[in-house]
Design a protein that fits this description.
The structure is a homodimer.
Chain A: E1 3-5, H1 8-20, E2 25-30, H2 36-48, E3 51-56, H3 66-71, H4 76-85, E4 90-92, H5 96-99, E5 107-109, H6 117-121, H7 125-140, E6 144-148, H8 152-164, E7 170-174, H9 194-199, H10 202-215, H11 221-233, E8 238-246, E9 261-269, E10 272-280
Parallel strand pairs in A: 1-4, 2-3, 2-6, 3-4, 6-7
Antiparallel strand pairs in A: 8-9, 9-10
Helix pairs in contact in A: 7-8, 10-11
Chain lengths: ~280, ~280
C-alpha cells in the first residue's frame, strides 16, 4: 500500500528523505478517478524512477464551471487501490484548504498557448492548471513528471511553464490510451449514458479522418477541418465545440500544413465534454 | 575571488555539488551597480549560509521604459570586486539571451499586490520582477534569499510568490541602508546631479513626517498623506509620483490606520526616479 499523505509538510519530509538517499523522484499529477490512461503514466514512472508519487487533487482553480467541479468524480479508495496495485510509493491527496489557504495572489499566466482550443472555451482553465502544477512541482520537486498526450494543450502549457521558468523537471508525454472502439480514456467517460457512449467515438473518427487526409497530401487545414467537422455535425446527439489544426508547440492554428501538426477537438455528448487529439504528419 | 558563472548549466552544476555536500545556499538577486545596501544583504547571507550566490542581471522584462533600461548602470568589474571583498562564493551574471532565449510564454502574474504604488505607474514591472525571481529561484534553488526593504512592494510581491506557489525558499527582508542625510541607497542615485542630490532627501523627510504623525495618534491616512505630499510639492525641483499609506502585506491603500502600515512614495528628481518607504506604527 502506498503512503497516503494529505499535508504539504508531510510530503516535503518524505521527498526530502528520498532526496538525501539519492533516490530519483517520479511524479504523476492527477485529479483522481484513475483509469488505464493514468495507469500507463504510473507504470512508466515506476519503470524510470526510484520513488513514485501520485497526486490526487481536484483543482478548483482550473474549473471554469462550478457544476463541472461539483460533478467531477471523486473515487479516492479506488484510486489508492489502483496506485497500490501499480507500486506507487506515495499518494498525495491534499484538501483544497491545504493547497489554497487563501485565494492566490500570484499565479502562472500562460499567454498565447492558451488562446485557442480548450483555452478559448474554458477561460482561466490553463492558468489554473499551470498554477497548480507549479505548486505541486515546488512541493514534490520531482526529477520527472508524467502527463498524458490526450490533453495536448495542457502538455504544451506545461512544457512552456518548465522551459520559460527554468523549472528543473523533465516533462514526459505519454500516448493516449483508448477503448477498443477508439474512445480516449477519460474520467468523464463514466458520466456517459450507454447511448451517449456509443456516439462519443465520432470525435476520434473525425480526427482520424483529418489525419488520413493530411497523410494523403492535403495541405489546406481549412479543407481538413471542414470534412472532420461535418462528420461530427452529422451526429445529432453530439455538439461540436471546436475542431482545429494547430502547431504542436504553441497550439496556434495552422493554415497550410508543412510539417507535423495536431488535430484537436472537443465535443459535448449530453452534459459531458470530451476532448481528443492526434498528431498528423504530411507525406 | 568569487567564481563568475554566466550560463545556467554551469550554475546548476555548482549548486548541485554544494547541495550534495549538504551546504546551505544563500542567494542575493541584484541588477548590479552594487552599493552598501546590497553589501548589507550579502553580509547577512554570508553570516547565515554556507554558499553565497549573488546574481547580477539587468532584467529587461521588468523595465517599462526602454530609456531606463538603457541608462541603468552596468559596473560588472566593480560589482565582482565588492562581491570578492564580501566573501561571495559565486557571481551569476547571465546574458539576456541566456535568461530569455525566446520571449517567455508563461510568466508570473502578480495580481492585486501590484495594483498600487509603483505597480500603478510601472505597468508590467512586478510581473517582470516576479518572473525573473521565479526563474532565478528555479536555477539556484536557494535555502534563503535576501531582498532589501527599500523595495517594499517588490518584497511583498516576492513573499506572495513564495507563499502562493509553495516555493521552498525562506525570504529575508533586510532594512534599508541610508546616507547620513537619510537618502536611501539606490543604484539610481549615481545619476543625480549635485543639486538634485541635495533635494532628493525630501522624500524620506516627508515619509518620516508621516511616520511621526501616525506615531502621535493620527488615524486618518488622508490627513497624513496630504501633509507629506505638501512637503514634497513645496520643493520645485522634485516631482511627486505618489505617496500612499498601504497595508504591509498586500500593499492596498488604507483609509483608517488601525495597525502597522507602510508609508511609501516615489519622486522624480530631474530624470531620475527614486522610491522609499517607512513602517509606521500607531500608538
Amino acid at each position: 500500500m502506498p503512503e497516503v499523505l494529505t499535508t504539504i509538510p508531510a510530503l516535503r519530509d518524505r521527498v526530502g528523505a528520498a532526496r538525501l538517499s539519492g533516490r530519483s523522484i517520479g511524479f504523476v499529477p492527477t485529479m483522481g478517478a484513475l483509469h488505464a490512461g493514468h495507469k500507463r503514466l504510473i507504470d512508466l514512472a515506476r519503470s524510470e524512477c526510484d520513488l513514485v508519487i501520485v497526486s490526487i487533487f481536484v483543482n478548483p482553480l482550473q474549473f471554469d464551471r462550478q457544476d463541472d467541479l461539483e460533478r467531477y468524480p471523486r473515487t479516492l479508495d479506488a484510486d489508492v487501490a489502483l496506485c497500490s496495485a501499480s507500486g506507487v510509493d506515495v499518494v498525495f491527496a491534499p484538501s483544497s484548504l491545504e493547497m489554497y489557504p487563501s485565494p492566490p495572489v500570484c499565479v502562472v499566466d500562460v499567454g498565447r498557448v492558451a488562446d485557442h482550443l480548450c483555452g478559448r472555451f474554458r477561460p482561466g482553465h490553463f492558468r489554473g492548471v499551470a498554477t497548480v502544477v507549479m505548486k505541486l512541482f515546488e512541493i514534490t520537486q520531482p526529477d520527472r513528471a508524467y502527463f498524458g498526450e490526450k490533453d495536448a494543450q495542457q502538455l504544451a502549457v506545461i512544457r512552456h511553464l518548465v522551459s520559460d521558468l527554468n523549472v528543473p523537471v523533465e516533462i514526459v508525454g505519454v500516448p493516449t490510451v483508448r477503448e477498443a472502439d477508439g474512445l480516449a480514456l477519460s474520467s468523464r467517460n463514466q458520466r456517459l449514458q450507454p447511448g451517449e457512449r456509443r456516439v462519443a467515438t465520432v470525435l476520434y473518427e473525425a480526427l482520424k479522418d483529418a489525419q488520413a487526409r493530411i497523410a494523403a497530401g492535403e495541405r489546406e487545414a481549412a479543407r481538413v477541418t471542414a470534412a472532420a467537422r461535418e462528420m461530427i455535425e452529422r451526429q445529432p446527439a453530439v455538439k461540436l465545440e471546436y475542431l482545429e489544426i494547430v502547431d504542436p508547440l504553441d497550439m496556434q492554428p495552422v493554415a497550410r500544413i508543412d510539417g507535423p501538426v495536431v488535430a484537436a477537438g472537443a465535443i459535448w455528448v449530453g452534459g459531458v465534454r470530451l476532448i481528443d487529439n492526434v498528431i498528423c504528419v504530411p507525406p
